[in-house]
Amino acid sequence: MNAFGAWESLSLHVVSQRRWDLLVPAEAKAAYKNATNNPVVVNLGDEPQTMRATIWDVDLTAHLPQVRWSGLDALPRLTTLRWSGPDHGLTEAIAARPLIVDLIWNDPPSTIDLSATHLTAVTISGNGLRRLRLPPGLMNLRLTSDPPQVVEAAEDGRWIRLLATSPGHAIPSGLHGVRRLDLQVAGDLSLTGLGAAADLEELTITWTGPHGQLLDAVDLHGLRRLHTLQLTDAYGVEASSLPRPGTPLRRLSIGGIRRSQAKLVKARYKGTPVWVTVWGAKSDTWLAANVSNPLRDWVDDDEQAGTAACKAYAAALRTIDRLPSGDAMGTNARPVLHKLIAELNAIDERYEIIDTLRREQAADAFFDLARRANIPDSEAADWLDEWRDF
């Protein structure tokens, strides 16, 4: 186990136990402990639904304008809510239920006040949010669209891990104290825009689109406490653009880089205090053919199995893109998708490569192809469940 990850996991367990001891009322603890897997009727104001009493995640994105929030009391182990649109009493309901610690909010209003809640994780998707007040115990904030103009957070966000996917990569006012930042980017990324986060200690960058360069990182101007840098799918990054030896950097981890650059990275930090880990290095020739293939990382575990999986996906993609438009029933796409899953079944039977992570990657690739053919997700899910053996 990664030593850093082990310590972080331990600290989260300590925090969770302390929250349970101090914030959760005795009656809520008793209801949680006594909950069984028996079905219960949950009435949120529309058609009553039968759910398992132990369910922990409820999706209310298709809610009525007026929600009967007391219906949530039938679910004593509920910890996660998914919501969309205006508040309609959401924040008040969450504040009254300290076991709800995770909120995913799509298309939010311009102002959100979560300061009275007990949330530890918040995900905001959709533009329009201008002002966001966060609870003092928040540990994870994920912003998948343009960030709010103003954020109010305890100690300027010092205890928050921020994940941002917005085009500007700007850290909003009120979060300049963050120490851990995850960025998902496409194209070139300049670290100049992160200078406001002077206390930043750990930075993770994942390229999800065009694999661009890392710019303005050599001297780490303004980032005087950055000791850990992790890069994923850094196929456009040059070794010479990385922080030079002599900066505060002490740990560099790169998963996915051009093989020619991997050697230069190791040479750059040889004999320095920087601990370097590089894996998933690939040749320029291989990347030219597979850099956009969602199964490309399978070759890191098994070259033969990964190559076969990449070829199967690439063949399916070419066929799907050549299909005539107007195939509303998916008649032409169905056999193509079936063949892909059959080939992945055969690959897994031979190489036993598809674990939980690979299963998710295979499913994501399958759904992407199905959407290209205008197949509804619900129908594609039925096909996948019927065909897959992994």
Q: Tell me, what's the shape?
A: globular
Strand content: 15-25%
**Total E-strand runs:** 16
Indicate the low-confidence ranges by residue numbers. Answer: none
N-to-C series of helices and strands: HHEEEEHEEEEEEEEEEEHEHHHHH
What percent of the residues sit in helical stretches (DSSP H or I)? 25-40%
Radius of gyration: 24 Å
Strand order of the largest sheet: 3-4-5-7-9-11-12-13-14-15-16
Q: Please describe the biggest sheet, giving its number of strands, its sense, and whether it closes into a barrel.
A: 11 strands, parallel
Number of helices: 9
User: Which structural class is indicated by helix and strand composition?
Assistant: alpha/beta
For the terminal residues, how far apart are their CA atoms? 26 Å
Give the overall pLDDT as a whole number: 92
Question: What does this protein look like?
Answer:
With 390 residues, the chain is an alpha/beta fold. The chain is 31% helix and 23% strand. It is built from nine helices and 16 strands. The strands form three sheets. It has an eleven-stranded parallel sheet. Helix 6 (303-322) packs antiparallel against helix 7 (333-351), helix 7 (333-351) packs antiparallel against helix 8 and helix 8 packs across helix 9. The longest helix has 21 residues, at 3-23. The two termini are 26 Å apart. The model has no long low-confidence stretch (mean pLDDT 92).
